[in-house]
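Morning run. Coffee first, then this:
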Amino acid sequence: MFGIGNNGATRQLYCIRLKLFCSTTTTANAEPNLLSEFLVNSLGFSTEKAISASSKVTCLKPRNNHKPELVVNYFKQIGLDNAQIKLLVSPAPRLLFADVDKTLKPKIKVFQELGFSGPHLVKVLSRSGAFLRTGLNTGIRPSIEYLRKLLGTDDSVAKAIKRTPGLLSYPLQRVMSPNISFLQNLGCSTLDIQKLILRNPRIFVQKTEWLEDIVQRVEKDFCIRRDSRMFFYGVEMLSSLSKSNLEMKLGIFRSFGWSDSDIITMVQRLPLCLTTSEVKLRNILKFYVEELGYETSYIASHPTLLMFSFEKRVLPRNKILKLLKEKQLIKKVPCFYTVIKCSESEFLENYVMPLRDEMPENCNLIDLSIGSRISVSSNVMANRSL
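And here it is:
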C-alpha cells in the first residue's frame, strides 16, 4: 500500500503512517486509521465496525506481499464476493495481512481438494477459529488425516467439517481420542461412533468429563439403555441443549398435561424430538390436542408427529384429509398418523390425486419433481358441490 523510499525522511514518514495504520486507538486529531478506511471503502464496512475490526490488528512488519489488496483480490479470484469476504474478515481482520502464496493458497487448497467451494468454503474459513494460527503441516493436514482414518472417505471428512467448521481449530487426535475410547469402553461400535461424528462432531472435541455427564443423564434421566439404538440420539440431543433450554422445553410439554412418564416414553422412542424449536412445539402440541383431540399418551407413543413441518406438511395434509372426508372421495378414511407419515409420492397418489380428479381447478400441485409443496384452496373446495 505504501512505498518505502531510500532516504531517511521517507522511511520515517512510512513508520509514522504504519503506526497509525496499526493503531488500536483513535483520537479526534489523529490521522484516520488506514485499515479502517480500507475496510469501509473496499469491503463496505460501517465506520464503527471498521474501527472495531482494525483495533484487533497489532502492528505488523511491512512486507510487499502482506497487503490487504492482495488478499481481497485472491478471495475474489476463488469466487468470493464482498459480502463473503466481509464475513471472513470481520472476526479476523489479521487475515488481510496474510501472505497469499505462502499462507492462504496452500491452506485453502486443502479444503478445495475436499470439495469445498463458494459458500461452503466461506463457512469453513470464517468459522474455523484460529485458522491463520494453525500450521498447515503441524495442524490442518494431521487433523484431516486423522478424520480420514476415523471416517474412511474424503466425503465423510468434508461432511464432518461442514457440520462443525471449527473442527480444524483443534488438535483432533489429542482431543477426540479420549472421547472415542470412552465410548468404546461403553461397548459402542466403530460404526455407531462414526455415525455420531458425522451427525455432531462437536461432541468429540469436548472434555471427556462433559461427555461422561451427558451419558449419565441419558441413562438416568431418560432411562435409555446403552444397547438401545436410541442411545446415541439421546447423547446427541442432550449435547445440543443447555440445561436451562432443556427445562424450558420440558415445561412446554408439562403445560399441555404431560407427565414425566409420558416425556420419558417419548424420548426413549425419539430423543431428537426435544431439539424441536419452542415455538413449533407449542403450535404443534396445541394443534394435536385442541384440533385433533389427541391424548398425551398417544403423541408420546408416536413422537414422529412432532418432527414434521407444521406449516408445510401437517396443516396442508390435514386440510386435504378433511376435504376427502367431507366429499366422501375415499371409502376407508385412514387415521391422520397414517396420512402424515406416508411419503410425498404416496400421499399424492392416494390422497391428492382423487381430490384433483374431482376438482382439478382447485388443487394446485407445485413442483412435483422436487418433492411437491401442496397448496389447496380449501375454502373454495369445501363450498363446491360434487
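Residues 313-370 form one domain. Good start to the day.
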